[in-house]
Amino acid sequence: MKKNLFPISFILTLFYLCSCNISNTVKAQSETHLGPELKSIFINGDSIHYIDIGKGDPVVFVHGALGDYRTWQAQIDTFAKNHRVIVYSRRYAWPNQQTMIDSSKHSFASHANDLAEFLKKLDPGPAHLVGHSSGAYITLLAAIDHPELVRSLTLGEPPVMSLLPPPSPTDANPFAKAVEAFANNEQEKAVHSFVGVVTGDSSYFSRLSQYNRELMMMNTQEARANVTLQNIMPPVTCNDLKKINCPVLLLGGDKSPSFFPLIINKMEPCLRNKEKATLPNTSHGLEYENPSEFNKVVLGFIGKH
Question: What is the mean predicted confidence (pLDDT) over 94-120?
Answer without folding.
Answer: 87
